[in-house]
Amino acid sequence: MSNDLLTESPPPGQQPEFDLTTRPWIRVLRPNGTEDELSLRQVFHQAPHLVRLVGDLPTQEFALIRLLLAILHDAVDGPESAEDWHELWEADTLPCERIDDYLDRHRERFDLLHPQTPFFQVAKLHTSKNEYSSLDRLVADVPNGNRFFTMRAHGAQRLDFAEAARWLVHAQAFDTSGIKSGAAGDDRVKGGKGYPQGVAWAGNLGGVMVQAANLRESLLLNLVATEYDHIRADDADAPAWRHAPVGPGPLKPVEAAYRPHGVRDLYTWQSRRVRLHFDAEGAYGVLLSYGDPLTPHEHRHRQEPMTGWRRSQAQEKKHKMPLVYMPREHDPTRSAWRGLASLITDRVRGKADDFVRPRVVDWVAWLATEGFLEEKDKRVRARLIGARYGTQQSVIDEVVDDDMNMAVALLDDHHEGLRQQAINAVDDAHRAVEILGTLAHDLARAAGTEPGPRRDAARDRGYGQLDAPYRRWVGSLDSATDPDQARAEWQRTLRDQIRRIGDELADAAGPSAWEGRVIEAGAADLWLSTPQAKSRFQRELARLLPYTAPAPTN
């Protein structure tokens, strides 16, 4: 089915229902490695015995976690304080009785097919010609031009209700920009079209969430207390289903000025206006148009905990504001460990600074430092998930999914020395890779070839070679680790890995590089050959890694 608009033909027969609180639709991973589909109630009840959610894409998992967090926040009306959070943490299960009562109260709003209040949709949403699009508009893994490496080479022609619900949640979080169908009654529509207004809210983020041994622990570690200083919420904070049903147009300015009220509102933000078209067997079409825009620069770093932030002087100048932070998007070419400092250190301490670490990580760090998370050697994963958009944000080019496994001790202020050595070790790696790149550059010049590509290839190879060793090393650190000894161990590993690559580069440089040539070097000429380039490489590497130097003899 193409993306062309199709004329509406109403489904025959009685209106079906699909209650998300009782019907299986969320995919999960069990400890034995099997996957399953569960309802909302089942997910919360079985959370201690589930590893994590499983999305059709990692971004879908991120969107669904935020949905579960909004429900949990609202069901417990908080937690208000760290003490309230600690009571939840000490229990063996989630507060399922309260969650069940909550889902009972709002059951109608969780019916995917409800005639008046369909979940995350607008009832009777339509275009002026009663048209709709194929489901390709909803499903993010439908190929855009490249149909060879996908399970949907012919598009998304039909979806069962479970999969349609998952992609609906994803669309409200990560939908692309571009020209969309214009909904009747939306004043922004021109000539039957909705013109670009940016990606859905989570698409702006370099998403970060904390994962632990099971889904229960993961949900609670991401459940930031209302009284936590760095994240603001007010008494009106509520998820989408506790707000009045929306129409085809955006929120009225007087309401939009005060929203989102907090994380419950933000995690379920209605970035799009959507209506599924379906029959008794499933969905066969969708109308997807623009909903409520949300701009990152308006102090969202005080509301959104699941991303890092960077100061933007360009945005400060553009909006004439003294301090603007924008979400730090993930770079698909850069592994998570290379940006460890921005994950585990707080760069903002009462002053304007360049970076703000993800407040959900900051929250876990605060829990550890204040003694609410007693297990200092408990292992957690900082999971990095995000979308990279292309062609004026009208397509998703790439999805980022990476993680860092570490002990809580690395986040605890009581182990500042250990944390700093973990960051220093990344700096060691960066400098060592630069030295390796310089060797490749020198060898290329000695051989009379273009040095730039050789240098870049050597850097890429260096980072690739260090990826697994660094992850193993940082994952081995705990509260009993001696920071200096750990750094020395890392530097020895680093030296061995980089030296081996350097030796291989020198061996492969060829006879012309070994013979060498005269190179212009400022005021004087320089004879450069493989032995000289390698000697310089070894000296620089030894200078960089003092922990690897032999102990002095008496």
Describe the structure.
The protein is of the alpha+beta class. The chain has 2 domains: 6-411, no CATH class; 415-548, Topoisomerase I, Chain A, domain 4, CATH 1.10.132.100. It is 36% helix and 15% strand. The chain contains 16 helices and 17 strands. It has helices at residues 40-46, 58-76, 82-90, 96-105, 161-174, 215-221, 253-256, 263-267, 313-319, 340-344, 359-369, 416-447, 451-476, 483-507, 511-515, 530-544; strands at residues 6-7, 26-29, 35-38, 52-53, 131-132, 180-181, 193-194, 207-211, 272-279, 282-290, 309-311, 325-327, 355-356, 379-390, 395-407, 517-521, 524-528. Strands 3-2-4 form a 3-stranded antiparallel beta sheet. The chain has a 3-stranded antiparallel beta sheet with strand order 8-14-15. A 3-stranded antiparallel beta sheet has the order 12-11-13, with no helix packed on it. Helix 12 (416-447) packs antiparallel against helix 13. The longest helix has 32 residues, at 416-447. It is globular, with a radius of gyration of 27 Å. The model is unreliable at 145-150 (pLDDT under 50).
